Amino acid sequence: MVDGPGPAHHSLWENKHIRLRGFKADDWPYFSRFEKDSNDARSVFRIVPPRADEAHEAETAELVRKPVDEDCFSLAIESRDSGEIAGAISVIDADRRAGRFTCGLAVDRDHRRRGYATEAVLTLLRYMFDERRFHKCEVYIYAFNTASLALHEKIGFTQEGRLREREFFEGHHWDVVVMGITSDEYRERRSPVSL
């Protein structure tokens, strides 16, 4: 057995309050619950017509069967205290040539303001920067979502631009703020084994 860097028996995917894990087939109620709350659905995805539980079951089973992609994936944010799913975090649009990827984040209303989102984003950045050698992470946040803007700024993201009237819901077009952080900026703020 070979010892590596960092504390013994430590999982990169676990932190003080949360663990990131793959979705399981019986996680489908999370997606159903999230989609039924119109404000939550609109903040991350979009509002769709109501679907039967069987549709959520089938969709979740398909997600579970999907082959592992080390650069683009979705993970459950699980509370270490309760074992409940607190949200989800995803990597989308990973561009290996440019060294850039986009992060998507959703935390349930009942689990907000507990530090879960911060831990989840920092864990994802550590994996993508320190293990996958990506150079930059970008996020797209509705301009009115001041909590998410503040969270990413606290982590070290910089506002890079504003896409005017980019998304449409609730009868209006809304601005989207683009924020980014480079691997160097991330490392300036964090020690290699800090979480």
From TrEMBL:
GO cellular component labels: cytoplasm
PROSITE patterns registered for this protein in UniProt: GNAT
Pfam families: Acetyltransf_3 (PF13302)
GO MF annotation: an example: protein-N-terminal-alanine acetyltransferase activity
Domain called N-acetyltransferase: residue spans: 18-184
SUPFAM superfamilies associated with the record: Acyl-CoA N-acyltransferases (Nat)
InterPro entries tied to this protein: Acyl_CoA_acyltransferase (IPR016181), GNAT_dom (IPR000182), Ribosomal_N-acetyltransferase (IPR051908)
PANTHER family to which the protein is assigned, alphabetical: RIBOSOMAL-PROTEIN-SERINE ACETYLTRANSFERASE (PTHR43441)
Protein name: SPBc2 prophage-derived uncharacterized N-acetyltransferase YokL
Source organism of this protein record: Wenjunlia tyrosinilytica
